[in-house]
Design goal:
The complex is a heterodimer of chains A (360) and B (291).
Chain A lengths: L3 E12 L2 E12 L3 E5 L6 H9 L6 E6 L2 E2 L10 E4 L11 H10 L5 H14 L15 H13 L5 E5 L7 H18 L2 E6 L2 H7 L2 E6 L2 E6 L1 H6 L4 H6 L4 E11 L2 E6 L3 E6 L7 E6 L5 E3 L8 E12 L3 E8 L3 E8 L14 E6 L5 E3 L2
Parallel strand pairs in A: 3-8, 3-9, 6-7, 7-8
Antiparallel strand pairs in A: 1-2, 1-4, 4-5, 9-10, 11-12, 11-14, 12-13, 14-20, 15-19, 16-17, 16-19, 17-18
Helix pairs in contact in A: 2-3, 2-4, 3-4
Chain B lengths: L1 H13 L1 H8 L10 H24 L16 H8 L1 H34 L5 H8 L1 H4 L2 H14 L6 H24 L5 H8 L4 H30 L2 H6 L7 H11 L3 H34 L1
Classes of the chains: A alpha+beta (360), B mainly alpha (291).
C-alpha cells in the first residue's frame, strides 16, 4: 500500500539558462492525493509536465509504477492529465471526447461503450452524451476532461490547476467532488495549484515549491502549524512575523528578545541561529482590554483597522514601534458592534506553545 | 423668431437634453453627416456602376453596346454556343481545379509549418511567402515566362497551372496561418496524453480544426486562378486560351453583348465562391469566440 507509485529523483529542468526546476526529489505513494503548491513561476507545472512526458528533464530520472520514464512518449505513459484549459476537443460530442483515448488505442467497440457509460456516470454527466462542448458550462467541460482521463484507468491522474477557471461556489463544490472521485476510483491524484485553500482542503500531502525547489513536504495540518521556513509560513495562510534575537536556552525553552514583546521564552528543540523569526497565526491571537495573565506573549497596541468578513473579523492592531499584528476574531455573538472598535487600546497575546520559531 | 425662442424656452423645462441630443451631430457621428453620406454614395457609384452597367447590357437586344434596345437572353445563348469560348471555359476550369488542389495542399503545409516550428531563418521564410502576394503580376509573369523558356518547357496548360500554383499557394498559407493562430495547443497534448500517436493526433484533432481555413483557402485559390489574366497571358501558349484571355481577345474585335454575357458569368461564379468563403470564415470565427 505504501509503495511509491511515482518517484522523482534529482530532477532539474532548464529552459535556456533559466532553471525552472532545480534538483527536485519526491516520492508519491500509491493512492495519495498529492498537491504541488507554489506561487506562479515556481516550476510546479513544469514538474507536472515532465511526469506527463511533455517536457524532457535536463537531468535526473522519473520512475512511474516501477518503470523508468526516460525516452517514453506521452502516449505510452501510464498517466493521464486534466489540462488547465480542459482541452476538450471542440469538434467532438461528449461521448466522442470521452471515448477518444480508447478509440485511438484500438479498444473493441462494445468495451468502449460500456466504459464510456461508466465514466460519464462517475462524473455525473449521464444525459449529456450528444452535446457539443460549446453547449456545456465550464464545470461540465471540466467533468468531460476528467471522464476522458479517468476512462484510461491511469496509474496516476495529473491535474494542472483544474479549478482556476471556475467561480468560487463551483470551485468549492468541485473540490469535494474531486476528493469523492479519488475515493471512488482509488487512483493516485497529483494536482498542481497556487491556491493554498485548494491544496489544504483536498490533498493528503503537499509539496510547497519556491523558485524551482521543494521547500517542504508535509500533510496539510503539519504544513500549516509547523512550517519549516518563513516562505512556507507566509505562503500558507496568514501569519504575524516578528524578528527576534536569540538570548539563549533555558530548560528546553528558547529565550529571545523581540522589540515590543521584550524577553520571551518559547518551547523549541533544534539549533537556532542568532537571528530568528517569531510567528503566530492570527486566529491564535487573543484580544483583551486588560493585561493578560503571566506566561503569555503579549504586546499593547491600538486598533487601526477592522476588516469584516461576516463569520469573522480581521483586526489590525498597531503595536508601539510601527509593528502591525493581525488578530482574527470570530463573530460568535449576533451583534452589530464587534468586541472592539477602531482606536481602542487593547492587549494582544498568545500562548508560548502557539509560537512558531522560524530559523530559515 | 419670437415664437421659436418661446418654444425652445418651453421645452427647456422638460426634455431639453433629449432634443439637443437628437439635433446635434457630434464629431464622431460620421454616419450622420450629409456630406460624408453623399461621398459614400458617390464612391459606391464609381466602384460599382461599371459592373452594374456591364451586367445590364448583357441583356441588351442590340449588336452595338451603346443604347438600350430591349431585353433578351440571346447573347447568353450565343455565348454558350460559342465553341471557342466553351473551350476557354473548360481550360480555365482544368487549370483552376488543378491549381486549387495543389496550392491548397502546399499552402496548408507551408502555413502549418510556419505556425508550428521555430527554425533558423524562419523570419526570412515568413517574409518570402508574402512575396508573390506583393510582387507586381507583370513581373511575376515575365519571370515565369523567362524561366519556362530557359528550361525549355513549351507553353501551355501545364505552364499556366504551375504559375498559378506558385502565386496562389502563399495566399492559402496566409489563410491557414490566421486560422491556426486561434488553435489551443493543449488539444494536441491532450490527444497525445490519451494515447494517440502523432499521426492520429494530426488527423483527429489538428486537421478538423484546419478545415474551415482549408475550405476558405481553396475557394480563394479557385477564384484567384479563374480570374487571373496577367500571369496567364504570359505563360499561355497555342491552344491554351483561358476564359479571361478569350474575353479579352473578343473585346479587341468589338464589345458585343456576348462579351458582357460571358463576363457576367465569370462575375457570378467568383462572387458566389467569395461569398461562400466569407460565410465559412465568419462561421469559424464565431466558433472560436464560443470556445
Amino acid at each position: 500500500m505504501n509503495r511509491p507509485i511515482v518517484s522523482i529523483e534529482n530532477i532539474s529542468k532548464l529552459f535556456g539558462n533559466v532553471t525552472a526546476v532545480d534538483d527536485v526529489s519526491l516520492k508519491i505513494v500509491e493512492g495519495e492525493f498529492f498537491a504541488l503548491l507554489g506561487p506562479s513561476g515556481c516550476g510546479k507545472t513544469t514538474l507536472l509536465r515532465m511526469l506527463a512526458g511533455f517536457e524532457i528533464p535536463s537531468s535526473g530520472r522519473i520512475v512511474i509504477d516501477d518503470v523508468e520514464m526516460e525516452g517514453i512518449d506521452p502516449n505510452r505513459r501510464p498517466v493521464n492529465m486534466v489540462f488547465q484549459s480542459y482541452a476538450v476537443f471542440p469538434h467532438m460530442t461528449v461521448v466522442d471526447n470521452v471515448a477518444y483515448g480508447l478509440k485511438v488505442t484500438g479498444v473493441p467497440r462494445p468495451e468502449i461503450e460500456a466504459r464510456v457509460e461508466e465514466a460519464l456516470a462517475l462524473v455525473k454527466l449521464d444525459g449529456f452524451e450528444r452535446r457539443m462542448p460549446s453547449q456545456l458550462s465550464g464545470g461540465q467541460r471540466q467533468r468531460v476532461a476528467l471522464a476522458r482521463a479517468l476512462i484510461k484507468r491511469p496509474k496516476v491522474l495529473l491535474l494542472d490547476e483544474p479549478l482556476s477557471a471556475l467561480d468560487a461556489k463551483l470551485r468549492e463544490a468541485m473540490q469535494l467532488e474531486l476528493v469523492r472521485l479519488r475515493n471512488a476510483v482509488g487512483i493516485t491524484f497529483v494536482i498542481v495549484t497556487h491556491d493554498q485553500d485548494e491544496a489544504l482542503s483536498m490533498a493528503n500531502r503537499i509539496a510547497v515549491m519556491d523558485r524551482g525547489r521543494v521547500v517542504q513536504v508535509a500533510g496539510p495540518a503539519e504544513l500549516y502549524e509547523f512550517p519549516n521556513s518563513r516562505f512556507v509560513a507566509d505562503f500558507i495562510g496568514k501569519i504575524n512575523l516578528l524578528d527576534a534575537q536569540v538570548a539563549g536556552m533555558e530548560n528546553g525553552r528558547l529565550l529571545a528578545d523581540s522589540p515590543g514583546l521584550g524577553r520571551v521564552a518559547v518551547p523549541f528543540s533544534g539549533a537556532a541561529r542568532a537571528q530568528i523569526g517569531l510567528a503566530v497565526r492570527p486566529e491564535k491571537v487573543k484580544l483583551e482590554r486588560n493585561e493578560p495573565t503571566v506566561g503569555r506573549l503579549k504586546i499593547r497596541g491600538r486598533v487601526r483597522e477592522i476588516a469584516y468578513y461576516g463569520d469573522e473579523s480581521h483586526v489590525f492592531i498597531e503595536a508601539d514601534p510601527g509593528l502591525v499584528i493581525t488578530a482574527n476574531v470570530s463573530n460568535d455573538a449576533r451583534t452589530i458592534q464587534g468586541p472592539v472598535a477602531v482606536g481602542d487600546e487593547v492587549w494582544v497575546s498568545w500562548a508560548p506553545t502557539d509560537t512558531l520559531v522560524l530559523t530559515e | 423668431m419670437k415664437a421659436g425662442t418661446l418654444t425652445r424656452g418651453g421645452r427647456a423645462i422638460g426634455v431639453t437634453p433629449r432634443v439637443n441630443l437628437r439635433r446635434r451631430v457630434l464629431p464622431l457621428d460620421y454616419a450622420r453627416r450629409r456630406s460624408l453620406q453623399a461621398l459614400l454614395v458617390g464612391i459606391f457609384a464609381f466602384l460599382y456602376f461599371p459592373i452594374v452597367a456591364l451586367v445590364a447590357f448583357s441583356f441588351n437586344d442590340s449588336k452595338r453596346n451603346v443604347t438600350w434596345q430591349g431585353f433578351t437572353f440571346d447573347y447568353y445563348i450565343k455565348a454558350f454556343n460559342n465553341s471557342s469560348l466553351h473551350e476557354a471555359f473548360i481550360n480555365s476550369m482544368i487549370i483552376a481545379g488543378t491549381a486549387t488542389l495543389v496550392s491548397t495542399v502546399l499552402g496548408a503545409m507551408l502555413g502549418l509549418g510556419l505556425y508550428r516550428f521555430r527554425f533558423p531563418a524562419r523570419g526570412l521564410v515568413d517574409g518570402w511567402i508574402s512575396l508573390p502576394i506583393v510582387i507586381p503580376e507583370v513581373c511575376m509573369g515575365v519571370a515565369m515566362l523567362a524561366f519556362f523558356a530557359a528550361v525549355n518547357i513549351p507553353l501551355g496548360l501545364f505552364t499556366i497551372t504551375v504559375s498559378h500554383i506558385a502565386f496562389i499557394a502563399p495566399f492559402v498559407a496566409v489563410v491557414i496561418r490566421a486560422r491556426m493562430a486561434g488553435f489551443d495547443e493543449s488539444l494536441e497534448e491532450a490527444s497525445r496524453d490519451l494515447g494517440a500517436d502523432q499521426w492520429q493526433t494530426f488527423w483527429n484533432v489538428t486537421f478538423p480544426f484546419m478545415i474551415p481555413g482549408l475550405v476558405a483557402g481553396a475557394l480563394l485559390a479557385f477564384t484567384l486562378s479563374l480570374d487571373d489574366f496577367v500571369i496567364t497571358f504570359f505563360t499561355s501558349g497555342p491552344g491554351s486560351t483561358t476564359f479571361p484571355i478569350k474575353i479579352y481577345s473578343m473585346v479587341r474585335f468589338s464589345v458585343t453583348p456576348e462579351v458582357n454575357a460571358a463576363s457576367t458569368v465569370l462575375i457570378v461564379l467568383t462572387l458566389t465562391l467569395t461569398v461562400i468563403a466569407m460565410i465559412i470564415q465568419g462561421r469559424s470565427g464565431k466558433q472560436m469566440v464560443e470556445k
